[in-house]
From TrEMBL:
Source organism of the structure: Rodentibacter ratti
Domain (DUF4376): residue spans on this chain: 74-181
Domain of life, source organism: Bacteria
Protein name in UniProt: DUF4376 domain-containing protein
Pfam families referenced in this protein's UniProt entry, alphabetically: DUF4376 (PF14301)
Amino acid sequence: MAFYVNQLNENGDFELIDGELAELYPHLDFKQLAELTNAQYQEFCERNNGNTKFINGKFVFEEIAVDLTALLREQRALMWEKIKQKRHDNLRGGVYVKSIGKWFHSNDESRQQYTFLRTLDTLPPNLMWKTMDNSFVQVTKAILDELSLQLVLDEQADFTNAERHKALMEQAESPLDYDFTTGWTDTFSEAINE
């Protein structure tokens, strides 16, 4: 199988033509084209990046400059999004109320309900709440206060941890390989799997 180079201009632009498809080029005189050796064709296949020229019977391979700074910025931005997502998910993985030894839901809907309950002067009598282990507990103002305070403390701890991971990840040579799994507050699923 032979391959040919049809020189298009003095700038080195060319088209590569498969000799087996010569009938598709009736206007070309193949005796006027440069026939490639197997070595030239192999080198072209291995090194062509779209910027290759053909000058004086030889391929000139132009390297594509990679903007490493831009690549690093993109990688850091991607990892920062992953860290923020971990923080978001972690803070919705439950909140532990130590005084009663129970995990409460901490998703957005539950947080709204806790906020609403805190606006009430008095809680409804015998207010029962389903916890993450599917048991029910009676919620009092004291439990609601402890739960709310723990939500804030966990949020601040995970915010600080995310910022710590961001700073370390930005110093890493390879941001995509940075491990940001340490230092987060516990979640219900982690607690029951210990």
